[in-house]
């Protein structure tokens, strides 16, 4: 599954050599893992010349000092809420102590005063239940959003004005982005690096962090089923086989044959394991291959269409337009001119 993305450009810092500043809001009851995601992902992003592409700052809603976590330790935060006024992007990770925000959908006076420091036009990002903060502040009114599947129904009841999608890993709505639980914050931060600086930079960050550049499927694959599924062979071999042959026509029966399964059984197991149909997955891989070739080579549009398995330039144009909201030529022009990836409609399968 994938989020809708408003066609709105990413905010870029002013001045030559200025780096995009990410400010992470640390709340009492925070999850240490999620607090570290922005530092790990954005902190590893480097330009072709090796320079860092982001500054990452962590702040509290109070003056500098300790902030309690949900673990048996606290973290010392060196910045107060005024740091939010310096942000190009604000990230709100999850907390297990949201109090009236979670119970009533309203901000505490202290939290409201802190969020008031955020400048208009700042890009807003939440990880997991951090979305409750954005919703209570009114930033998600009338917008699509997601949160951890476990809290999705409660989130929707508490904030009926928000269009909740519990199936996706993240939602990109242009200047406001929300992710599902925990590790989906990694998916979202990698997506932002890709959106800001392209596939090559995001893939490099993913390699350094030893995580996949893209995770297939949505949250549905992680929800516990009422009846446990029997252990069975996976579809890994079929996917590896297909990735090595993206330039060729690939039939569903050919993929099923790699696992010695009927088409029906293979399709069911594939969806259970990956979260989307084989056809949806294959299209996504071809879109990603085309993106990479558009960014990193001088191949013609026709040649890229062939190498990515779309067959014709027209077919590739239709698929990229549907997945990314831009034409192949416009996408290539964006990166060849040194600009950032436009915020485009994109559903994360």
Count of DSSP H/I helices: 14
- Determine the N-to-C terminus distance: 4 Å
Ranges where pLDDT stays below 50 over 5 or more residues in a row are: 1-16, 224-231, 341-349
Strand percent estimate: 5-15%
Shape type: globular
Question: Biggest sheet, strands in spatial order?
Answer: 2-1-5-6-10-9
Total E-strand runs: 10
CA-atom Rg in angstroms: 21 Å
Tell me the major beta sheet. 6 strands, mixed
Structural class assignment: alpha/beta
What share of residues is helical?
25-40%
Mean pLDDT: 86
Order of helices and strands: EHEEEEHHEHEHEEEHHHHHHHHH
Quick recap:
With 349 residues, the protein is of the alpha/beta class. The chain is 39% helix and 11% strand. Helix 1 (32-43) runs parallel beside helix 6 and helix 8 (236-243) packs across helix 9 (252-258).
Tell me what the structure shows.
With 349 residues, this protein is α/β, with parallel strands linked by helices. It is built from 14 helices and 10 strands. The protein has a 6-stranded mixed β-sheet with strand order 2-1-5-6-10-9. The protein has a two-stranded antiparallel sheet with strand order 3-4. Strands 7-8 form a two-stranded parallel ribbon. Helix 1 (32-43) runs parallel beside helix 6 (184-197), helix 8 packs across helix 9 and helix 9 (252-258) packs across helix 10. The protein is globular and about 60 Å long. Mean pLDDT is 86; it is low at 1-16, 224-231 and 341-349.
